Amino acid sequence: MDACFRTYLALCNKYQLSPPWNCLETDPWAFRGPAEPSVILPLLGQHHPEQQLLAAGLAQRNGQGQLQLHRFLSIPDVLLVALRDRKGAVVNLMTLAGCVTGDARPLFGVFADQHTYQALAGRWRRLLLTSDMEDAILLRSVGLAAAPITGLDALNDQGLTLLSEIFGIQRAASDHEWEDTHDEGQAAALPDAPSGPGDLGHAAGPLPIRPTPSGPAGLAAAAQVPSHPYLIPGTGDLGKDADEHVPLTIVKWSPRLRSSTELEPVRRAVRYLDELHRFRGLELFEVEHWVRAEDEVEALEFALDRGEPGWVKEALLQSLDTSTGSITVPQRHALVSTAPCDFSTAVQQLHEALLGDSEGHISRATQRQALRAYHRLASQQIIEPMLRQAEAVSDPVERCLRLQLAQLNALFLEKMPTVRERLLRNGSQPAAGSPELGHDKSISELLAISSQLLNIAKEVKTWNRNTNPPPKRPPRTLTINSPRFANSDAVSKN
Questions:
Q1: How would you label 475-486 residue by residue, b for 16+ Cβ within 10 Å and e otherwise?
Q2: 3-class DSSP state for residue 440?
Q3: Cα separation of 176 and 268, whole Å?
Q4: Residue 191 vs residues 11, 95, 179, 186, 188: alpha-carbon distances, Å
Q5: Which of 179, 386, 395, 435 is the most interior residue, by most CB within 10 Å?
Q6: Integer distance in angstroms from the first to the last C-alpha of the chain?
Q7: Beta strands in 96-198, from DSSP E residues, in sequence order
Q8: Any idea what the Cα angle at residue 330 is, between residues 324 and 334, rounded to 5°?
Q9: Which residues pair with 82 in a beta bridge?
Q10: In 15-126, beta strands by DSSP E
Q11: What was the pLDDT predicted at 217?
């Protein structure tokens, strides 16, 4: 397929960002399609047989069985992005209307792209959905993972399954679904329940989902794209661990135009998500939106006026960092109003940020603010004093023990917010031996660290007692003034 795609791309023009964005280096795999699409198919047929063009998705048959150019590519001057695999081979073409092969919805098809894989492996781990291709190309040009929002407003049951697997957006089970899952779980636990190599079983959870293979094969099977290898490994960006899900962010403004006008594709998608929430129980607190902030747009305009690509990228990323939150949270004041000055206050504010406001709405920006304050005060008021105390000890063995104690305590404090968030989300800690506890290893890891802390603390105490024993009391004469002793026969003997 790579050869077919490259032949088509040779007939296209490289896309270039328009001023004032031309100070940035445009995504090299962004193109503008031919002005006359009708002449393209005969040119492609000169180099590739029909079957190859059909397999690549560049061609398709109409209702009369005639071969024609794919309808997404039949638009004059269509904007498109070539999606490449790890080896650099072109595996798909993404347009505003969708992808030409595999899963047509860009928010799923884009995961076959090497650029997307690299962007999600960095700090800015989220998929941005835009109203048009030009904004998507702009965001890709600054190193972010972006795709058109097309298809989010028409998700079916398979699409909801992919939302859960990739983005961690779950659907609450209805009463009868919960009862069916609960009954199946009880039946599987019976001694005479049938089991065998092919028995997959059913795990009790919020939504009964048909088991699919994990990893690249799992997503390809779910999307019914056997020829399309997805790059994100099953333990990574597709993972089953809640921490590894990819945040889905809807861009509610046009960064390219610096306009706050919400375009129809975004309004339609948000409206459909709300309907899925009301009628299908889709939990929307994991869906984020990026809104326009006036002061951040001013910083962006300043950077664009001076044509500094580094400043432009920094202004965009700063806006993304501070103006992104859960789509269920209206623009309101942050829960963390003042910076804490002591660790106990930082812990309290972090707990409030993780829990959300009185309506249960969660702000990602507020969480990040509280988390930064928590880590800063934990380092200043706990870890650094412990390290200074350890370095002041002259005995090398005791110094080593105290340094280990400080490092383990730092690891414990680092993992605590993650465990606290999961316990708040789940409502309570899973019982020992439950599937949830086996699946989520963060709680067991924290308990193991706590056990090691106790062991080292005991070692420090034991070492201090052995190396610095308490002084012995000098012997003294014992005088007994008891009346009973004075009247006894032992008086004369004494």
A1: eeeeeeeeeeee
A2: coil
A3: 30
A4: 66, 54, 21, 10, 8
A5: 386
A6: 111
A7: 127-130, 145-148
A8: 70
A9: 93
A10: 30-32, 59-61, 67-69, 79-84, 90-95
A11: 37
- What's the gap between Cα 278 and its chain centre? 25
The amino acid at 190: L
What is d(CA 67, CA 69) in angstroms, rounded to the nearest whole number?
7
Report pLDDT digits (tens) over 369-407: 788 888 888 888 888 888 888 888 888 888 888 888 888
Between residues 376 and 248, the one the model is more confident about = 248
The pLDDT tens digits for 255-282 are: 999 987 778 899 999 999 999 998 988 8
Query: What is the DSSP annotation of 447-493?
Result: HHHHHHHHHHHHHHHHHHHHHSPPPPPPP-------HHHHTSTHHHH
pLDDT tens digits, one per residue of 2-24: 899 999 999 999 999 999 999 99
Q: Collapsing DSSP states into helix, strand and coil, what is residue 197? A: coil
Q: Which residue has the tokens 């795990």?
A: 203
Q: Residue 432: helix, strand or coil by DSSP?
A: coil
In single-letter form, the type of residue at position 348 comes to Q
Confidence of residue 442 (pLDDT cuts 50, 70, 90): confident
Q: How many residues are recorded in the chain?
A: 494
pLDDT at 131 over 90: yes
Q: What is the DSSP string of 303-343?
A: HHHHT-HHHHHHHHHHHHHHSEEETTS-S---S--S--SSH
DSSP character at residue 97: S
Could you give the CA distance from residue 344 to residue 351 in angstroms, rounded to a whole number? Answer: 11
